[in-house]
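Quick check before the chapter quiz. The format below is the same one you will see on the exam, so make sure you can read both the input and the output lines.
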Amino acid sequence: MINFTKIVHKNQIIDEKGNIVQEGTPINAELLNRYESIIEELVNKVNQLEEAK
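Here is the expected output.
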């Protein structure tokens, strides 16, 4: 089974004075590597199902 916790991403919002009104979701290597791992696991599962046909 693949474990997945959905993240609700947010844009950074800056007002007309340059103040941050809302912090955005950081895009970093940890987050991108998490996505890559999940995608890899899903692709492997699909390939296993295709091979079992």
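If your answer matched, good. The chain is about 45% helix and 10% strand.
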